[in-house]
Amino acid sequence: MRTKPTSHTIARARRLRLHATEYEKRLWWKLRELKKLGYHFRRQVPFRSYFLDFVEHGARMVIELDGAQHGQAEHRERDAVRDAILKGEGYRVLRYWNAEIAENIDGVVEAVVRTLSERPPTRTATPSDLPTRGR
Asked: DSSP string spanning 89-123?
């Protein structure tokens, strides 16, 4: 059974969103464009004792961006535990290095869309999801 996030947890998630890395900001803008395909990503989502970078609950997908510190043994072990917990909950975890975002963000987004197509969204896009012109 899931518990309701505390005010401290909500405040921390808001701080993480406010102080997003440049790579998170870049990917966030690209993921928002997928709304027209019926996908709804959220960012810095509290999940158990973790904060997930990006989540699409309908397709049960998590996207994590990793900096250089994730190459260290202790971080790899923690990431493996976290990924196993998420997989146990039915989520597919995609991990990308910050350098991949910097060098080939369009390729990353294409890979995300391919993976999403394996699990269709739980809702379809509405006219309000489509980008507006001139605003």
From this structure: TT-EEEEEEHHHHHHHHHHHHHHHHHHHHHS--SS
